[in-house]
Amino acid sequence: MQKDYYSILGVQKNASADEIKKAFHKLAHKYHPDKAGGDADKFKEASEAYSVLGDQKKRAEYDTYGQTFGGGGNGAGGFGGFSGAQGFDFSQFQDMFQGAGFDFGDIFSGAGGAARTRRGRDISIDLELTFKESIFGVTRRVLITKVGACDTCRGSGGKPGAKLNQCKNCNGAGKVHETMQSFFGAVTTVQPCKVCHGTGKIPEEKCATCRGEGVLRKQEEISIAVPPGIDRGEMIRMSGSGEAVQGGHPGDLYVKIHIAADKRFTKDGINIITDLSVKLTDAILGKEYTVPTLDGDEEVTIAPGVSHGETLRIKNKGVPTRAGKRGDLFVRVNIVLPTKLSKTVKGLVEKLREEGV
After folding, report:
1. Helices marked H in 109-157
2. 186: Cα within 13 Å, side-chain hemisphere
3. Confidence of residue 185 (pLDDT cuts 50, 70, 90)
4. What 3-state class would DSSP assign to 210?
5. Is pLDDT of 162 > 60?
6. Contact at 8 Å (CB) between 242 and 252?
7. 274, 329 in Cβ contact below 8 A?
8. CA dihedral 311, 315, 319, 323 (to 10 degrees)
9. Is 320 helix (H, G, I), strand (E, B) or coil?
10. Residue 192: closest CA among 216, 170, 167
11. What domains appear along the chain, each with residue ranges and CATH number?
């Protein structure tokens, strides 16, 4: 029986190409065999399904005949010819897996390929801003605990001034060739040496602070520059500010933005909206009102006969833009009706009614 590739990827038969791609990315990330809890068989199955459904021609053949007829000799049910007739390009997934600490070079690099550079773990933090800080931007300094390079040995793992000897495990090359069996057959990979961490050198004396690890868990103060006009839920990526790893590059720091609600203002694109309560008599006769803005108070004129819900515009009091300009502040008029009327006021209102007001 032919496999149901749509069911394997968890999509409908009328799914768009983008939906199919996203579904495969999710499954590949979940089942990648190099990841803890990965499943090589399910990874292979998902890859096989995507090799067909991700190709417009093969998908049409599969929908019509239940199989494909291009390359590899295995049809849609096979797994051969991925880089040839199947036209499957694994390079497109490298960015997706680097954040998890591995990439496809671990499996598919040839014997002559370069060793993959080790990379530290990505970390994330939450940062809460006031509404005003989110509009104008702010620089915050935060103290976080993470794995960082040892300050004593500067990440080398050796005692300062200690002699460095050639690593015997890799003969000073910093990398080793490893052959392993995978669902693609025997694959030779080039990996950083685990003894010298890719440096090719071993210090005669270990650093007393980090015990030769080159890294240790410590507190570090980080400066975060928040750009103007940032929205709630946005992420700021700080390259190289994640956790360190000996002989490799540090990961990234991701800062998720939270914005405290402001009772006076809301943001609408590059504009800001605020409400202004106006008495009924002022709405009828008109009056000057003081309106709060993020730059200080501003005077606005309530014209006689203003309508409930009408908006007044104060230019250049909104969100700063990259072009050096600013949005506007829109003042929404809310006419407040009195809840209790004296006999005198009722009499006056009756006269207004009689005049058709």
Report:
1. 131-136
2. 4
3. low
4. coil
5. yes
6. yes
7. yes
8. 140
9. strand
10. 170
11. 5-101 (1.10.287.110), 123-259 (2.60.260.20), 265-354 (2.60.260.20)
